[in-house]
Design goal:
The protein is globular. It is α+β, with helices and mostly antiparallel strands. The strands form 16 sheets. Strands 5-1-4-7-8 form a five-stranded mixed β-sheet. Strands 20-26-25-24-23 form a five-stranded mixed β-sheet, covered by helices on one side. The protein folds into five domains: 3-66 and 101-267, no CATH class; 299-389, no CATH class; 394-488, no CATH class; 533-800, Rossmann fold, CATH 3.40.50.300; 805-944, no CATH class.
Length: 969
């Protein structure tokens, strides 16, 4: 058994530098350096080899237990240097987004760092075995920490024995490490090994013998021996191997999630421990506040202002304009100075705002000043915490007769701070999950309180005194000033292509030309805007890798899924786009998983909604409007069974905007429809207008019990972890078509109502399919073990869906039976009224004349199916007339029902043979001069057969199984 991990080697020492103080205690004369630059060595070790690694590791070396995503990377650097160098393929930043847990065996680091009396190695191992008895039989290695086992070489006296300790556990599935470690930490509390630590600022921190902050794939283990100044020396014991060297810990089996009763007990123990420490924490906190206030007073800040600044930071997590931060370089800057120059300070590193000396790490906090919502600083001290940054409060004097002036001033200030936007004629803010929150009067008053100092003139004191803004101010602001704020359509969290100019939106901020706010992370990948065919092939493999093992039914299904992935990437800027339905013959086939893949690719975790027809059309309409109003990037209808038809859903697919009455208001609102709409279910049948607006992808595991299957990875998790890379590859493919295939018009026709989608997404897929047909792009598994999808024109899925539409199949049967029993053409013999149609052909025994094929339905059978009265052989004339009117002029298989001139006050109907008319050059319009309506494209083999088309999934051929391979970044 071998576990994968990573060794980093810097050009400078990265271990601790220790010396003896005059009082005989140990002091850090230097914190050495954090890992900013270095080389990468990928390790694959047995427990015995791992011990040798720990023994030979040098002062410039350190380890981490994740592995780089980019297999080509040989050097590591900072994110800023990485971006400045245009993200070279042989270099990577040491960020969590650039690292991942190994697929298979790995190392789970248990870091034990006590502050007071330490457990002995035997006691620590016994405690861990008590929390997880199975650990005792699995391979694990014990080692002393970097700061342990120190003595004075002059006196021979031990200064520090074994204190900090590490236990390296070899686990079977490294991807489960974060979850398993959290469970193990809670078990430590349940077994009496938990405690509350009081920080320097008086925070009560939940701690145990398991440090839960180290379980990140990019977390560094500075495990080399310390550099000691004489007479200090270190004599660490040899790392010790325990357990069976061939047995890795199956964390999924032996560390399952806690039961509800255990969770409740864990919460009780934590609460009880906090109560016991409250008094001590309050004393520490008060002393901290007093010290910070004195520091601020020394800079000239008044005591009351300093006290408010410090208490706001402690109690509310809010850093006011006078709050002083320490930069990575050791300089001091106020929050107000940061906010005056946001582009310059965005993404900078700082010390922790509350405890600047925390672990002597001056890069532990990072500023986010250009993202949506309020600016903040995020610190990883004591786990993780965000602090809101507040600018200087503007003074607003509520002077009588001056309301217009100060209201305009309020609107101008809030607009400049980019906190409010307009959507559906309502003010919204962008939430942390990048959705929209509609602002009420209470929200606006809260923003007023945070952003302004309202003053009102006091006649007695003849001075302006602080006052609360009246509620009517918020009402007026919402009613009269909403239109002054910029309109926002969506928030994107990955780069995207502007359709009209082909410009790449790849920088954080609001883009007024598109109404898009880009909130991009640090780990975006470069998009190749002038790709070669080699770049195209690599990008195609990257996009497809996460779904390569899915059992798609046939080629068109792979094409639909691939088309859905490109659509998900580009959907925020597509005016309209078709929906996607994931279909299967049995539960647990992986339908919901594929919708999650598309949702994660869109940058969101999907919220599953019920069957679109389960709550009625009116409720569905309201739900759709509400979801679009809040800015849902993806709408998923899950567990759909059988037939689906919805006028509201069909309208959302083909409309750029959607309107409805705003809940609780007497007016309507209009919102963009740029959400990806998905559905999943078993044997879905699309009806009405949906077959040509939804692309259906069918999968089939070909097993009776698909829920028992197991996979080496989770496709949705893979997309979540590597989304930026997949998005970059998808955009590279689109740019490939725009540059290499721009003069081509591939595929048959254009998709009506989805013109922009057709020009970018569909044409890209058709171009790639054409390259595969020419042999320029591979299909299926390639010699290097990677996989490309098998591509065809995705519109073949629409033709398939239309061919099995129950409504069209029924109409086809009617047209066929009408032609046989009545005939075609507009003559007295072939024109009928509803009454005469029912009289002459409504009885089953009259309709066998002329029928030679027993599989065909008679005209009476079809009429009974359309308008039959239940439990009788009678027909409903009104229902039959409505059916004929609603299907008039719709051409299907070369025929169409036409409405003729009235006869004795009743409408007449006849069957037009469009093929014959077109061949002879005659007009295909009805004698009442009606328009011809929609023309449904059908496959040639379907136009000649009188039989009803069979469902698409019964006509498929079995596809070969895909083989697995190793992931390549």
């Amino acid at each position: 058994m071998k576990a994968q991990f990573t060794k980093w080697t810097a050009p400078y020492p990265v271990t601790k530098h220790l010396s003896l103080a005059e009082d005989g205690s140990i002091q850090k004369t230097s914190t050495a350096s954090m890992l900013y630059d270095g080389t990468i060595t990928r390790m694959d070790c047995t427990p015995a080899e791992f011990i040798k690694t720990l023994q030979t590791i040098g002062a410039n070396d350190c380890l981490s237990y994740g592995v780089p995503i980019n297999e080509q990377a040989t050097r590591v650097t900072t994110q800023r240097k990485f971006n400045a160098a245009c993200q070279p393929t042989t270099t990577m930043p040491r960020t969590s987004a650039a690292m991942t847990w190994p697929q298979g065996p790995g190392v789970m680091l248990i870091d034990y760092d006590p502050e007071d009396v330490a457990l002995t190695p035997q006691q620590l191992l016994a405690a861990l075995y008590r929390c997880c008895p199975s650990l005792q039989g699995a391979a694990h290695v014990w080692a002393a920490s970097t700061s342990s086992c120190l003595f004075n070489s002059k006196t021979g006296v031990e200064v520090r024995g074994v204190k900090g300790q590490r236990v390296y556990v070899f686990v079977a599935n490294a991807t489960d490490i974060p979850r398993a470690a959290a469970v193990l930490a809670k078990r430590a509390w349940l077994n009496g090994f938990g405690h509350i630590k009081i920080s320097k600022s008086g925070q009560m921190l939940v701690r145990s013998i398991i440090d839960t902050t180290v379980f990140q794939p990019n977390r560094i283990d500075y495990c080399a021996p310390a550099e000691c100044e004489p007479p200090l020396k270190q004599a660490k014991p040899t790392p010790q191997h325990h357990g069976n060297a061939l047995c890795a810990l199956d964390t999924i089996a032996v560390l399952p999630d806690l039961s509800q009763s255990d969770e409740t007990e864990f919460e009780r123990l934590v609460t009880q421990a906090k109560v016991a420490k409250t008094a001590t924490a309050m004393v520490v906190r008060a002393q901290y506040i007093a010290n910070r206030v004195e520091e601020m007073k020394a800079t000239g800040i008044a005591q009351d202002v300093a006290t408010k600044v410090v208490t706001d930071s402690m109690e509310r997590g809010v850093l006011g304009p006078d709050f002083v931060l320490t930069t990575e370089a050791g300089n001091q800057v106020t929050v107000g100075q940061l906010l005056q120059d946001r582009p310059h300070w965005h993404g900078m590193r700082f010390c922790d705002p509350i405890e600047p000396d925390y672990h002597q790490d001056n890069r532990i906090a990072k500023s986010y000043l250009l993202g949506p919502g309020r600016p903040r600083i995020h610190s990883y001290a004591h786990g993780s915490h965000s602090y809101e940054l507040t600018p200087m409060a503007e003074v607003v004097r509520l002077a009588a007769g001056d309301r217009h002036a100060y209201m305009n001033h309020i609107a101008t200030v809030l607009n400049d701070r980019s906190e409010l936007y307009r959507r559906a004629d309502r003010l919204v803010t962008i939430t942390a999950d990048h959705s929209f929150e509609v602002q009420t009067e209470h929200h606006i008053l809260t923003i007023f309180d945070r952003s302004f100092r309202f003053e009102k003139f006091n006649e007695k004191k003849k001075d302006w005194l602080v006052s609360d803004p009246p509620a009517t101010l918020a009402q007026q602001f919402l009613g009269a000033y909403t239109r002054q704020f910029p309109e926002i359509k969506t928030v994107i969290t990955a780069p995207i292509i502007q359709l009209q100019t082909h410009r790449l939106l790849d920088s954080t901020g609001y883009d007024s030309s598109t109404g898009v706010y880009a909130s991009l992370p640090d780990d975006t990948y470069p998009v190749i805007q002038q790709p070669t065919l080699v770049d195209v092939v690599h990008a195609l493999q990257v996009v497809w890798w996460c779904v390569r093992l899915v059992p798609f039914w046939e080629t068109v299904d792979e094409s639909v899924m691939f088309t859905g992935m490109l659509t998900a990437i580009q959907r925020p800027l597509l005016p309209t786009a078709p929906g996607f339905a994931i279909d299967a013959p049995i539960q647990a086939s992986g339908k919901s998983l594929l919708t999650k893949v598309l949702a994660e690719l869109s940058g969101t975790t999907p919220v599953m909604s019920p069957h679109p027809g389960s709550s009625g059309e009116q409720e569905l309409r309201k739900s759709l409007f509400a979801m679009l109003l809040e800015g849902r990037k993806v709408i998923v209808f899950d567990n759909v069974i059988g037939e689906v038809d919805s006028a509201s859903l069909a309208a959302v697919y083909t409309s750029t905007t959607y309107s409805d009455r705003i809940l609780g208001k007497s007016k309507s609102g209009t919102v963009p429809t740029n959400a990806l709409i998905l559905m999943s279910g078993n044997n879905i049948t699309l009806k009405g207008d949906l077959p040509r607006r939804v692309l259906k992808c069918r999968i089939d595991p070909k097993t009776e019990k698909p829920h028992l299957r197991s996979f080496d990875f989770d496709p949705a998790n893979m997309v979540r972890e590597h989304r930026q890379q997949i998005v970059s590859a998808g955009l590279t493919l689109i740019y490939g078509f725009l540059t290499l295939g721009k003069s081509l018009a591939l595929g048959t026709g254009c998709t009506a109502s989805f013109e922009d989608w057709d020009r970018t997404i569909r044409q890209t897929v058709c171009w790639l399919a054409d390259l595969q047909k020419s042999g320029l792009v591979p299909t299926g598994q390639t010699p290097d073990g990677l996989v490309c999808p098998r591509l065809v024109d995705p519109l073949e899925a629409i033709a398939d869906a239309v061919s099995v539409d129950p409504d069209l199949m029924q109409l086809g049967r009617l047209l066929e039976a009408w032609a046989i029993n009545i005939g075609t053409g507009c003559t007295n013999a072939t024109k009928v009224t509803v009454k005469s149609l029912v009289k002459d052909h409504g009885c089953r025994n009259l309709n066998n004349q002329g029928v030679t094929d027993p599989e065909r339905q008679t005209l009476g059978d079809v009429l009974m199916e359309i308008a039959g009265i239940p439990r009788s052989y009678e027909l409903n004339n009104k229902k039959l007339g409505s059916y004929l009117a609603s299907h008039a002029d719709r051409v299907l298989r070369g025929r169409a029902i036409r409405q003729g001139k009235p006869y004795q006050g009743a409408a007449t109907w006849w069957l037009d043979d469009v093929r014959d008319s077109c061949d002879s050059g005659e007009s295909v319009a009805s004698d009442s001069n009606k328009n011809s309506g929609n023309v449904i494209p059908m496959r040639s083999n379907q136009t000649t057969s009188p039989k009803s088309p069979k469902p698409r999934h019964t006509q498929r051929t079995q596809r070969p199984d895909m083989q697995t391979g190793a992931h390549r970044a």
